Amino acid sequence: MDLNLQMNLKRIVVLLALCLAPVLAAADELENQIVKQYQNQVLGLRAPIGEAGQELDSAGKPVEASSGSPWTLYSGLLFVKKVSLKADSLNLEGDPLISFDARRTAGLQLGQPLKIRIHLEHQLRSADEAQQLMDRVFFLDTESLKRAKPEYRRSGATDEPIYHVGQDKVIRYPMSKYTPEPEMSEEARRAKYQGTVVVRVVVDKNGLVSRIAVVRSLGMGLDAEAVSTIRKWRFQPATREGQPVAVELNIETTFHLF
Predict the structure, then answer these.
(1) Which domain holds residue 33?
(2) What digits encode the pLDDT tens for the residues 125-144?
(3) How far is CA 20 from CA 13, 24, 34, 250, in A?
(4) pLDDT tens track for 82-101
(5) Domain ends where: 103, 124, 150?
(6) For the CA atoms of 129, 132, 133, 139, what is the dihedral angle to 10 degrees?
(7) One domain for residues 162 and 141
(8) Residues 6+ apart with CB under 8 A from 179
(9) Rounded to an integer, what distance in angstroms lies between the CA atom of residue 182 and that of residue 205?
(10) What percent of the chain shows pLDDT beyond 70?
(11) pTM for the complete prediction?
């Protein structure tokens, strides 16, 4: 290669590096600000989200109509453990929570970590712009968090009427067909911890559990064990005047050490 051409190429590389250095430094500083503001914080999800996570556009709407997961989390709480900013996306990873105490930075964990990717129309330029984006995806204030009670729903469930056992004498209870007991979590076993988890569910007219919400939690992985097992339960559906109907009921699951 011609010596002059090599010299010119080197000058171009140096100039590009000098021009890009302030841009990269500003991007790193902005990422640090976002991490400081949202990492180790509890946020309430505005939109339903798949079990593994979700990709959202800059308006806070899912990129895809369905994540392919058989279950969807509605009004969930997320304890943010990791935040990263890219040129084309803002990425968060954290644990779904059952409950939240404003005096603490977290609550009782439920299930596997969630990953959320928010696509950007353009590279973020300020912390204020990042907050506006986050506000489209999450409830950022404590008062809103109180309303973000998590409930798992089976994907594709219909909006059929839901009855309550005991409200109508002609409603017959669903009968269990397959209801295995949840197992103790290793964390609870090591701590010799036991107790009762209360879960509210809807058993639909096909005998499937279509909604799950933890009413009384224990922590130490026992709530997740209860939810994971109960979602697999099968019933002979409840009936009203001889026809199958969806009913809501509470299920108590007691964990014993033997």
Answers:
(1) 3-150
(2) 899 999 999 999 998 877 77
(3) 10, 6, 21, 59
(4) 999 999 999 999 988 887 66
(5) 150
(6) 150
(7) no
(8) 233, 234, 235
(9) 24
(10) 83
(11) 0.77
